[in-house]
Amino acid sequence: MKGRGTRIAAHVFLVVVTLVTVYPIVQIVGISLRPADRLYSTSLRVIPEDATGRAYYSVVFEKDFLLWLRNSAIVSAIVTLVGVALASTAGYVFSRFRFVARKFGLYSLLIAQMFPATMLLLPLYVLMKGLHLLDSMAGLSVAYAATALPFCVWTMKGYYDTIPRELEEAALIDGASYWRAFRTVVLPLAAPALAITAIFSFMSAWSEFMVARVIISTRTLYTLPLGLESLSSTFQTEWANYAAGSVLVSLPVVLIFLFLNRYFVSGLTLGGVKQ
Amino acid sequence: MKASTEKKIFPYMLLLPTVVVMVLVVAYPLVYNFVLSFKNMSMYHYYDARFVGLRHYASIFTQTELYWVFGKTLIWTVVNVFLHVALGVGIALVLNGRVVGSGVFRSLLILPWAVPQYISALTWRGMFNHEYGAVNLILKNVLHLAPIPWFSDATWAFAAPIITNVWLGFPFMMIVALGGLQSIPHELYEAAELDGAGPLGKLKNVTLPLLKPVLAPAVVLGTVWTFNNMNVIWLVTGGGLPADKTHILVTYIYKAAFTYYRYSYAAAFSVIVFFLLLGFTLAFMRHFKVTEAVFE
Amino acid sequence: MTRTLRFSVFLISALLLVYAALSGCAKKDDGSIAIWEQMDPEEQKLLDARLAAFQASHPGVEVTRLHFETELLRTQFQTAGLAGGGPCLVFGPSDQIGPMSTMKLIRPLNELLGEEFLSTFVEGSLDTLNGLVYAVPDQVGNHLALVYNKKYVKDAPANTNELIAVARKNTVDENGDGVADRYGLVFNAVEPFWLVPFLGGYGGWIMDARSGPTLDSPAMVKALGFVRDLRVKHAVLPKECDYQQAETLFKEGKAAMIINGPWSWGGYIGAGIDVGVAPIPRVSETGLWPSPMVSSKGYSVNVHCPKEKLPVVKELLDFLTSDENQLESARKIKMLPARRTAVDALGSIGDPFLESSLAQVRLGRRMPVVPEMRAIWDSMRPAFQNVLNGETDPETAAAEMQKAAVESIAKMKE
Lengths: 275, 296, 414
Known about the structure:
By secondary structure, chain B is mostly helical. Chain B has 13 helices and no strands. Chain C has 17 helices and twelve strands.
């Protein structure tokens, strides 16, 4: 049968791709274990001979890592909630309703993304100052939500498009309100898209640096990327700490992804419902 | 309240919050830049800039070397996005089949997205080191090939950030594709099989058309982001090695604004980039009919 | 419908509420004095201790510090300045005062601090633009010098011929695998900042008295040829050697000598290397000393800093650049002071690093602070890299640098 050969090939392919993908990450772990802040090494050894876990201790206990973590967690949580709530609703409207300026609305969402971001920072600062949102978590969250929304709305809209209309029309005929039809029939079916939207919104806030640098100028409000940057100077960067911090920063992302994993497993969500 | 009234109001109610956020944050910076592009704001006229008309636009279009850079930017964008999509969708398709330990693979494969870009780009730079980098050592010791002069040859120096950026970007496409694949009912595959379709036929007639609505926004935005992404090139090539030959269009904007403080010139340049990308997006969307629903 | 309405009202009011609530928390001007800096980690620690001491002796005064990477500091300070904000004090290398004063973001200090105060600083540590002082230095330096690993090099070479000989002797591939086990001389060979000392050693300089670039000179051709020979003819400098590779090789004991500045020396000692520091040796052909660029770092005052804060700012500046504090920096992180009396007291510390460092500074040349410098660096970089890669010869490269610099400066000023 064709099945066996293809299955082995598929596994070999995945193993090779995963090895190539993980190798640079292993290098980063190597940097975090090297003493005396050496970014590079002349040997291929992954774990250096003089390996030390000191950088991890130093980042967590001697820097404000936990504070940065808290700030990042708050901002990312707000942005994820706002992103999912607004994109799931707006996307639904763009998918199901025909109204004036619908296409215009869809396209204008994308407009901000096309403008080179570095040039938007100066007016963003002026704007945030005018709105009294400078140096605040709220300002940061609003800015991030605006960066994440275009992709999220479009993705939700695209996913709703693949869900047959008959499903909620049946519910409407049964006397449900539009909101109820959306909430109880369509939204549960869109779980995978909600998962994409959630992880994308989260990452927009979790790893963003430039906007945070412009908006935040108080050390107690630093997010993780700002905190990591504070470990570097023009020539003297604390590479071991930087790498250790980077490894720690990626762990929550992997955890969140593990949690969302079930929405990406075939057959669990839709399958038979769509007829 | 009447159902018809509800039908009229409902969509606007749901849209309103998104519109508020987007207008609040996006409108002002955009308008600001458009206005700025017609002024002469620079180091010498920081607080007292005045309107000078189309001067910057004229000067940009007459710089012939920029057309060459534009070509390079296109290569950078097309190669990256193509490989992101090909790898992302390919891996997602494999993972969506029956795979032992697929959860482990999925979690490991998103790592490039999870790790802060700054450190991973610099790590890749180290891996491209001529003498001690992992890539050349593997070429030399395992494959017995000549080491590659990654940062003294303009072509290889352009390949290095592309390799890095493909590594950085494919996990995102993989996630999007994985999510999109969940919306395809098994029955459609079964029906296609009954019609005698092989694996390729199923991919072409079932998978890709149904993946399109979810994948298209990711492709469009991926293109826009890649076109404007100079960070990876800058970090991997150490600011444009060799001899500024690896720059793309946005690098010129960045340099104009931050090395030479030519803010208005940079704004005009950004407006041009903006219209290039807008044109691409409109053409792409129209061609693939992305704003339309699938089942209509 | 009621639910729809309720939901929408909820969302909108939630947004408004979040906005209202948190904008209320946005920081108002609380009378504190902010400093934005781009210091190295060890300097930051010293500054924190000094700020604590200052606040202890000035009840009711709050001083905060915020760290930035150098380029980001400039960008962010300019952005904040355009909107009429930013910190009262900005700390950085002297070359940032060129653009910042041209943009009218920082104020001249002559009047605020008085000529008597300014006269306590050593000749040349105060940079002036149009005759005005824009920064109070707390250190002089930022200069490149020759650092050698005493395990391989007993005494510093006396001239460039010796330098090359020592470097050649120390470039070895013991197991013959094509990967050098040790290099003779490493440095950041992609940045023109490392070319400038040799330019001076051949009798040239980057600009004339009117800030016009003078890059297309016989000295530039010689200097480019010299560095190219280190790579190609003598092969003592690794291919594609950048800052991080040079650092790694030297810290791993795989390089006999490195050219680098005072900010890096502590790191070598920390990596367990027995290091010596000496001026970059005389150029054998000309008998001239190479002239690394010397610049000060210091504090500038934001034009938007409110008038009522200026008296405290003045006291703070006096304190941060005091003799005691500058000598403490000299002792602890080997930084050279900028005040006359502190420089005179330097001998009492008896640190060989400081003495070599001072010797090198006296052979160096002031880094110009005019805004044109940025265009000059940007124009030198690609031509320098082309020479090292064998793409162009030194003569062509020197001409290209000059042409690019003239064009870029004209564009900057248009």
